[in-house]
Amino acid sequence: MGTSLADLAEDRPVVDVAVGVLIDGDGRFLLTSRPEGKVYAGYWEFPGGKLEAGETVEQALRRELHEELGITIGAAVPWRIELVDYPHARVKLNFCKVFAWSGDFEMRERQSMSWQTLPVAEQPVLPGTVPVLQWFAEERGFTGATHAG
Ligand SMILES: Nc1nc2c([nH]c(=O)n2[C@H]2C[C@H](O)[C@@H](COP(=O)(O)OP(=O)(O)OP(=O)(O)O)O2)c(=O)[nH]1
């Protein structure tokens, strides 16, 4: 039996990522654009980043959102997990809802931020972000396209 490309893809290590879905008092959620110099630069996503050794998802999320946005989050409520195979990596996205934070938003990586509801007006949206919009649609009884393009 030979090894197919698919088998090799399955063997790629999984990179754990903590992703924050910040929701404000009006039910809007925060999207940020990926900074220059990263893969998918300019694409809109939920803020977050990779876990460092020994970190829990919540710890990584608290660190990343402080580093990237200057805020300190309260509790991170685990929502859903998604596995995405990109050409550059195989990522496990640990999405958490966040309803409380303190501090003023600062775009420390010169990214942009945008509070959105459905349908999302910003584009392009990162492929790994699209399912989250669908989960919101299901939760909120929203029908129709969740985002442009
Ligand atoms: N933050 C975030 N990442 C996402 C989302 N959807 C999605 O597929 N990803 C992917 C893109 C990247 O492959 C990975 C996150 O890695 P990253 O490069 O942003 O993480 P990082 O800030 O730790 O980056 P670095 O230190 O390596 O520069 O997860 C999302 O909604 N938010």
From TrEMBL:
<keyword id="KW-0460">Magnesium</keyword>
<keyword id="KW-0378">Hydrolase</keyword>
<dbReference type="GO" id="GO:0044716">
    <property type="term" value="F:8-oxo-GDP phosphatase activity"/>
</dbReference>
<keyword id="KW-0234">DNA repair</keyword>
<comment type="similarity">
    <text>Belongs to the Nudix hydrolase family.</text>
</comment>
<keyword id="KW-0479">Metal-binding</keyword>
<dbReference type="InterPro" id="IPR000086">
    <property type="entry name" value="NUDIX_hydrolase_dom"/>
</dbReference>
<dbReference type="GO" id="GO:0035539">
    <property type="term" value="F:8-oxo-7,8-dihydrodeoxyguanosine triphosphate pyrophosphatase activity"/>
</dbReference>
<keyword id="KW-0515">Mutator protein</keyword>
<dbReference type="GO" id="GO:0006281">
    <property type="term" value="P:DNA repair"/>
</dbReference>
<dbReference type="GO" id="GO:0046872">
    <property type="term" value="F:metal ion binding"/>
</dbReference>
<dbReference type="InterPro" id="IPR020084">
    <property type="entry name" value="NUDIX_hydrolase_CS"/>
</dbReference>
<keyword id="KW-0235">DNA replication</keyword>
<protein>
    <recommendedName>
        <fullName>8-oxo-dGTP diphosphatase</fullName>
        <ecNumber>3.6.1.55</ecNumber>
    </recommendedName>
</protein>
<dbReference type="InterPro" id="IPR020476">
    <property type="entry name" value="Nudix_hydrolase"/>
</dbReference>
<dbReference type="InterPro" id="IPR015797">
    <property type="entry name" value="NUDIX_hydrolase-like_dom_sf"/>
</dbReference>
<dbReference type="InterPro" id="IPR047127">
    <property type="entry name" value="MutT-like"/>
</dbReference>
<keyword id="KW-0227">DNA damage</keyword>
<dbReference type="GO" id="GO:0006260">
    <property type="term" value="P:DNA replication"/>
</dbReference>
<dbReference type="Pfam" id="PF00293">
    <property type="entry name" value="NUDIX"/>
</dbReference>
<dbReference type="GO" id="GO:0008413">
    <property type="term" value="F:8-oxo-7,8-dihydroguanosine triphosphate pyrophosphatase activity"/>
</dbReference>
<dbReference type="GO" id="GO:0044715">
    <property type="term" value="F:8-oxo-dGDP phosphatase activity"/>
</dbReference>
